[in-house]
């Protein structure tokens, strides 16, 4: 399919910035009304690149925005596609650990927290243990179908996450567990119907502002490393953008660093955007078809959570 795309000709769609996006609806259709998918192979700083993004109107009532979790197991995006009645879109989301297949970030489904952020990182001090406390960025969709990106505090004893609309610097102390009483006053209840966390945040108020220093997602100069990437964001007129960038494919697609990913999301029209788990996890299916080529030699990597867009009316039409 990837070679096939190179032979097709489409009318170019220009977004903000210099990236040229090409409409490839016909490759991944049929698509619901007002849903579109775009492709770009414009170079990133002179290096080969392949990226796709799907944009869906949040206010379109025929679309459902949800998540699916493995409940202690990991499945490939294609397996999630089969388990969830062949939805329109399936994409990887949270960071996770391989031993217990556990999400390391928050997941909200039907307004309920299914997974939680890891807020406490052990740091060895000279005389005693110290702990770093940080807050991961997340993207959510409310019952009123409005998207929001915020920085979360999650607690298994609380029904809702608490969210700050401004980035919160990480801090260190001798407390093994971050307490609600330690939070600044910017945190409020975040009543989202569906949400996934990851980080760092890439775009705020229509400007590239990467909050890796606050979130401490990547150490040192790792934000400059090029990898396959997954990101989500939204536009000023209520379009949800889901993007993947292919990588680790020498001579074809080398991947993107976080600044390049932010630039790509900005070119897709995002006013806010969030980085999600990348590398071998990055996979986006549209109508069950792969967009980018997964970087793992074995193909799609099993993951413990995915974000899903489904169109029940479309499914009924296809079944007829």
Question: How would you summarize this macromolecular structure in one to three sentences?
Answer:
The chain is mainly beta and 320 residues long. The chain has helices spanning 2-7, 25-28, 77-83, 212-215, 258-267, 312-319; strands at 12-14, 20-23, 36-40, 51-57, 64-69, 89-92, 96-97, 102-103, 107-109, 112-115, 120-124, 129-133, 137-141, 147-153, 162-164, 171-173, 187-189, 194-197, 201-204, 207-208, 229-235, 239-245, 270-275, 284-286, 289-290, 305-310.
Note down, in words, how this protein is organized.
By secondary structure, the chain is mainly beta. Helix content is about 10%, strand content about 35%. The chain is built from six helices and 26 strands. The chain has helices at about 1-5, 25-30, 75-85, 210-215, 260-265, 310-320, and strands at about 10-15, 20-25, 35-40, 50-55, 65-70, 90, 95, 100-105, 105-110, 110-115, 120-125, 130-135, 135-140, 145-155, 160-165, 170-175, 185-190, 195, 200-205, 205-210, 230-235, 240-245, 270-275, 285, 290, 305-310. The strands form five sheets. A nine-stranded antiparallel beta sheet has the order 1-2-3-4-22-21-23-19-20. A seven-stranded antiparallel beta sheet has the order 10-9-18-13-14-15-17, with no helix packed on it. Strands 5-26-6-24-25 form a five-stranded antiparallel beta sheet. A hairpin with a 5-residue loop joins strand 1 and strand 2 (about 20-25). It is globular and about 60 Å long. The two termini are about 25 Å apart.
